[in-house]
Amino acid sequence: MVRISKAPEVRKQEILETAMKLFYIKGYEKTSMADIAKEMDVVPGLCYRYFKSKQDLFDTSMNQYVEECSQKFLEVIRDDKKTLEQRIDYMANLMETQEENSRYHNFYHKNGNEDLHQQLMIKIAKYLTPIVSEELKKISLKGEVQVENIEMVVNFIMYGQIGILSCVGISMKEKVKEIRKYIDLLLLSKL
């Protein structure tokens, strides 16, 4: 066997991609670090050079995915050329379309992975909450909206969506419509 040297970041990403592929095929619990190494045709120790454990590997992958999923939302959230209502409209549209096009959509929406999907949604909410709070403060200072306790409202919006998004048997379009209705009541009804 010829040893192939790769840049550390390239190798690390290769391990992450292989792991997520196997987690989808075999399931998280049934996939071992040895399985990942075997799939890559490398020694198991290589995986442990980059990750302390399978859980560490999965957490790293999820955090990377959280950032990836959040990028388009961040562009909208930070777009101060749009009004709050325009930003909310655009975010609603993104929510309806983004998930289907995301890299690990099938893994997080696979039957049996509901708890992992829930974890993902909580991490996305946690990641976006401080940024949404900061933007809402700016919007409030401009007088575009009046919010008494920005931190509570943002937490309610960000984490409250998870309950709606977790509903089964309802289309994403309907879920987004409901989320939008509650956001409008909280932020736009006083205008």
Automatic annotation (TrEMBL):
SUPFAM superfamilies assigned: Homeodomain-like
Keyword field contains Translocase: no
Domain HTH tetR-type: start-end pairs: 9-69
Residue range(s) of DNA binding per entry: 32-51
Gene3D superfamilies xref list: Tetracycline Repressor, domain 2
Assigned keywords, A-Z: DNA-binding
PANTHER family: ACREF/ENVCD OPERON REPRESSOR-RELATED, ACREF_ENVCD OPERON REPRESSOR-RELATED
Protein's name according to its UniProt entry: TetR/AcrR family transcriptional regulator
